[in-house]
Amino acid sequence: MKRQTFAFLSLFTLAVMLTAGQLLPAADPVKPKSENADKPSSDARPETKKEDDGLVALNKQKTVLLDLEGKRLLLKTTVCLQEGVLEMLCCKKQTKEHESILSIDSPATAIHAGLLAIGAKVGSPVRFSPKFQPPQGQKLQIVLQWKDKQGKLHREPAQSWVRTATNRYFSASLDQLPEGVVIDKKSELRYDEKYKELIWFGQMTEKQRDDFLAKSKDKQFQAAI
Protein backbone atom coordinates (compact mmCIF):
# COMPACT_ATOMS: atom_id res chain seq x y z
CA MET A 1 0.00 0.00 0.00
CA LYS A 2 1.56 3.27 -1.08
CA ARG A 3 0.14 6.76 -1.20
CA GLN A 4 1.72 10.09 -1.94
CA THR A 5 2.16 12.99 0.40
CA PHE A 6 2.53 16.61 -0.60
CA ALA A 7 3.51 20.02 0.70
CA PHE A 8 3.07 23.52 -0.65
CA LEU A 9 2.62 27.16 0.34
CA SER A 10 -0.26 28.17 2.58
CA LEU A 11 -3.07 29.16 0.20
CA PHE A 12 -6.73 29.81 0.79
CA THR A 13 -8.75 30.07 -2.39
CA LEU A 14 -7.91 29.42 -6.00
CA ALA A 15 -9.44 28.67 -9.35
CA VAL A 16 -9.16 25.26 -10.98
CA MET A 17 -9.51 25.30 -14.76
CA LEU A 18 -10.47 22.11 -16.55
CA THR A 19 -9.91 21.95 -20.29
CA ALA A 20 -11.19 19.15 -22.51
CA GLY A 21 -9.58 18.05 -25.76
CA GLN A 22 -5.89 18.33 -26.58
CA LEU A 23 -3.47 18.87 -23.72
CA LEU A 24 -2.56 22.44 -24.60
CA PRO A 25 -1.98 25.38 -22.23
CA ALA A 26 -5.28 27.01 -21.32
CA ALA A 27 -5.76 30.46 -22.80
CA ASP A 28 -6.20 33.46 -20.53
CA PRO A 29 -9.81 34.58 -20.03
CA VAL A 30 -11.14 36.63 -22.95
CA LYS A 31 -11.88 40.19 -21.86
CA PRO A 32 -14.44 41.88 -24.13
CA LYS A 33 -13.81 45.50 -25.04
CA SER A 34 -15.70 48.04 -22.99
CA GLU A 35 -17.22 51.26 -24.26
CA ASN A 36 -15.80 52.92 -21.17
CA ALA A 37 -12.27 51.70 -21.74
CA ASP A 38 -10.94 55.27 -21.98
CA LYS A 39 -12.44 56.33 -18.66
CA PRO A 40 -10.25 56.61 -15.53
CA SER A 41 -9.53 53.34 -13.78
CA SER A 42 -11.55 54.47 -10.76
CA ASP A 43 -14.71 54.17 -12.89
CA ALA A 44 -13.86 50.68 -14.08
CA ARG A 45 -15.08 47.52 -12.39
CA PRO A 46 -12.74 45.86 -9.84
CA GLU A 47 -10.04 43.67 -11.37
CA THR A 48 -11.47 40.54 -9.73
CA LYS A 49 -14.72 41.02 -11.64
CA LYS A 50 -13.04 41.03 -15.03
CA GLU A 51 -12.01 37.41 -14.71
CA ASP A 52 -15.66 36.38 -14.52
CA ASP A 53 -16.72 38.06 -17.77
CA GLY A 54 -18.44 35.66 -20.15
CA LEU A 55 -18.70 32.88 -17.55
CA VAL A 56 -21.97 31.14 -16.68
CA ALA A 57 -22.57 29.77 -13.16
CA LEU A 58 -23.79 26.17 -13.14
CA ASN A 59 -24.70 26.03 -9.45
CA LYS A 60 -26.32 28.34 -6.91
CA GLN A 61 -23.05 28.74 -5.00
CA LYS A 62 -21.46 30.11 -8.21
CA THR A 63 -18.38 27.97 -7.67
CA VAL A 64 -18.68 26.12 -11.00
CA LEU A 65 -18.41 28.50 -13.96
CA LEU A 66 -18.69 27.54 -17.61
CA ASP A 67 -16.72 29.19 -20.41
CA LEU A 68 -18.46 27.54 -23.33
CA GLU A 69 -16.66 29.52 -26.03
CA GLY A 70 -13.25 28.84 -24.52
CA LYS A 71 -14.08 25.18 -23.78
CA ARG A 72 -13.13 25.60 -20.13
CA LEU A 73 -14.68 24.92 -16.74
CA LEU A 74 -13.66 27.13 -13.82
CA LEU A 75 -13.98 25.79 -10.26
CA LYS A 76 -13.66 28.10 -7.26
CA THR A 77 -12.06 25.97 -4.56
CA THR A 78 -10.41 26.21 -1.15
CA VAL A 79 -7.12 24.66 -0.06
CA CYS A 80 -8.00 22.26 2.76
CA LEU A 81 -4.79 20.26 3.30
CA GLN A 82 -1.13 21.27 3.08
CA GLU A 83 0.53 17.97 3.90
CA GLY A 84 -0.81 14.47 4.39
CA VAL A 85 -1.88 11.22 2.79
CA LEU A 86 -3.36 12.11 -0.57
CA GLU A 87 -6.41 10.31 -1.96
CA MET A 88 -7.77 12.88 -4.42
CA LEU A 89 -7.16 16.37 -5.77
CA CYS A 90 -10.54 17.90 -4.94
CA CYS A 91 -13.50 16.82 -2.83
CA LYS A 92 -16.95 18.17 -2.00
CA LYS A 93 -16.98 20.55 0.98
CA GLN A 94 -17.15 18.82 4.39
CA THR A 95 -16.46 15.31 3.07
CA LYS A 96 -12.87 14.20 2.37
CA GLU A 97 -10.82 17.25 3.38
CA HIS A 98 -8.45 15.05 5.39
CA GLU A 99 -7.16 13.42 2.19
CA SER A 100 -7.72 16.06 -0.52
CA ILE A 101 -5.75 19.13 -1.55
CA LEU A 102 -8.82 21.18 -2.43
CA SER A 103 -12.49 21.30 -1.49
CA ILE A 104 -15.39 22.87 -3.38
CA ASP A 105 -18.87 23.91 -2.30
CA SER A 106 -20.72 22.21 -5.14
CA PRO A 107 -22.38 18.91 -6.00
CA ALA A 108 -20.45 16.72 -8.42
CA THR A 109 -23.38 16.86 -10.85
CA ALA A 110 -22.66 20.52 -11.66
CA ILE A 111 -19.04 19.74 -12.51
CA HIS A 112 -20.07 16.70 -14.55
CA ALA A 113 -22.58 18.77 -16.51
CA GLY A 114 -19.96 21.42 -17.19
CA LEU A 115 -17.48 18.87 -18.50
CA LEU A 116 -20.09 17.44 -20.84
CA ALA A 117 -20.89 20.96 -22.06
CA ILE A 118 -17.28 21.60 -23.11
CA GLY A 119 -17.11 18.29 -24.97
CA ALA A 120 -15.60 15.90 -22.45
CA LYS A 121 -16.51 12.25 -22.91
CA VAL A 122 -18.18 10.17 -20.20
CA GLY A 123 -15.85 7.76 -18.43
CA SER A 124 -16.25 5.17 -15.66
CA PRO A 125 -14.74 4.65 -12.19
CA VAL A 126 -12.48 1.77 -11.25
CA ARG A 127 -14.13 -1.66 -11.20
CA PHE A 128 -13.10 -4.69 -9.17
CA SER A 129 -15.78 -7.20 -10.19
CA PRO A 130 -15.99 -9.50 -12.07
CA LYS A 131 -12.41 -8.49 -12.88
CA PHE A 132 -10.27 -5.45 -12.21
CA GLN A 133 -10.65 -2.57 -14.64
CA PRO A 134 -8.85 0.75 -14.13
CA PRO A 135 -10.73 4.05 -14.39
CA GLN A 136 -11.71 4.98 -17.93
CA GLY A 137 -12.07 8.50 -19.28
CA GLN A 138 -10.74 11.38 -21.29
CA LYS A 139 -7.57 13.17 -20.20
CA LEU A 140 -8.13 16.72 -18.98
CA GLN A 141 -5.73 19.57 -18.50
CA ILE A 142 -6.09 20.91 -14.95
CA VAL A 143 -4.57 24.30 -14.17
CA LEU A 144 -4.47 25.94 -10.74
CA GLN A 145 -4.67 29.73 -10.58
CA TRP A 146 -4.40 31.90 -7.48
CA LYS A 147 -3.10 35.20 -6.13
CA ASP A 148 -0.49 35.44 -3.39
CA LYS A 149 -0.51 37.91 -0.50
CA GLN A 150 1.05 40.55 -2.74
CA GLY A 151 -1.73 40.14 -5.29
CA LYS A 152 0.49 38.47 -7.88
CA LEU A 153 -1.32 35.98 -10.11
CA HIS A 154 0.11 32.44 -10.33
CA ARG A 155 -0.76 29.58 -12.70
CA GLU A 156 0.56 26.04 -12.39
CA PRO A 157 -0.46 22.59 -13.61
CA ALA A 158 -2.22 20.65 -10.84
CA GLN A 159 0.46 17.94 -11.00
CA SER A 160 3.01 20.38 -9.57
CA TRP A 161 1.12 20.45 -6.28
CA VAL A 162 1.49 16.70 -5.78
CA ARG A 163 4.96 16.18 -4.39
CA THR A 164 7.19 13.12 -4.17
CA ALA A 165 6.19 10.78 -1.37
CA THR A 166 8.22 11.23 1.80
CA ASN A 167 6.38 8.53 3.76
CA ARG A 168 4.55 5.35 2.89
CA TYR A 169 2.58 2.50 4.44
CA PHE A 170 4.30 -0.71 5.50
CA SER A 171 2.31 -3.84 6.27
CA ALA A 172 3.12 -7.35 7.40
CA SER A 173 0.91 -10.40 7.93
CA LEU A 174 0.19 -11.22 11.56
CA ASP A 175 -2.42 -13.78 12.61
CA GLN A 176 -3.02 -12.02 15.91
CA LEU A 177 -1.32 -9.74 18.38
CA PRO A 178 0.71 -11.69 20.94
CA GLU A 179 -0.90 -12.06 24.35
CA GLY A 180 -0.33 -9.00 26.50
CA VAL A 181 0.73 -6.73 23.63
CA VAL A 182 -1.16 -3.44 23.68
CA ILE A 183 -0.56 -0.81 21.00
CA ASP A 184 -0.85 2.81 22.05
CA LYS A 185 -3.63 4.53 20.08
CA LYS A 186 -1.34 7.53 19.54
CA SER A 187 1.25 5.34 17.82
CA GLU A 188 1.54 5.03 14.03
CA LEU A 189 1.51 1.25 14.52
CA ARG A 190 -1.88 -0.34 13.88
CA TYR A 191 -3.23 -3.88 13.84
CA ASP A 192 -5.97 -4.65 11.32
CA GLU A 193 -8.16 -7.39 12.78
CA LYS A 194 -10.07 -7.92 9.53
CA TYR A 195 -7.08 -8.39 7.24
CA LYS A 196 -4.72 -9.75 9.91
CA GLU A 197 -2.02 -7.19 9.21
CA LEU A 198 0.33 -5.06 11.24
CA ILE A 199 0.50 -1.60 9.64
CA TRP A 200 2.92 1.28 10.04
CA PHE A 201 2.93 4.66 8.32
CA GLY A 202 6.10 6.70 7.96
CA GLN A 203 9.66 6.09 9.05
CA MET A 204 10.30 4.01 12.15
CA THR A 205 13.27 5.08 14.27
CA GLU A 206 15.61 2.52 15.83
CA LYS A 207 14.29 3.42 19.29
CA GLN A 208 10.68 2.87 18.17
CA ARG A 209 11.64 -0.46 16.62
CA ASP A 210 13.45 -1.59 19.77
CA ASP A 211 10.52 -0.55 21.96
CA PHE A 212 8.10 -2.59 19.83
CA LEU A 213 10.40 -5.61 19.74
CA ALA A 214 10.62 -5.51 23.53
CA LYS A 215 6.85 -5.99 23.81
CA SER A 216 6.96 -9.66 22.83
CA LYS A 217 9.32 -12.48 21.87
CA ASP A 218 6.73 -13.93 19.50
CA LYS A 219 8.62 -14.81 16.28
CA GLN A 220 5.87 -13.71 13.88
CA PHE A 221 5.45 -10.40 15.71
CA GLN A 222 9.21 -9.83 15.76
CA ALA A 223 9.46 -10.55 12.02
CA ALA A 224 6.58 -8.19 11.28
CA ILE A 225 8.23 -5.36 13.21
Report the helical percentage.
Answer: 10-25%
What is the H-and-E element order?
Answer: EHEEEEEHEEEEEHH
| Quaternary form | single chain
The number of domains is 2
Main sheet specs: 8 strands, mixed
Report Rg. Answer: 24 Å
Give the low-pLDDT segments. Answer: 1-12, 22-51
Structural class: alpha+beta
Tally of alpha and pi helices:
4
Query: Mean pLDDT, nearest integer?
Result: 81
Number of β-strand runs: 11
Amino-to-carboxy terminus distance: 16 Å
Residue share in β-strands: 25-35%
General form: elongated
What attributes does this structure have?
eight-stranded mixed beta sheet, 4 helices, three-stranded antiparallel beta sheet, 225 residues, 2 domains, alpha+beta, elongated, disordered N terminus
Blueprint of the fold:
Elements: E1 13-19, H1 47-50, E2 56-57, E3 64-67, E4 72-79, E5 88-92, E6 100-104, H2 108-117, E7 141-147, E8 153-157, E9 169-173, E10 189-192, E11 197-201, H3 206-213, H4 219-224
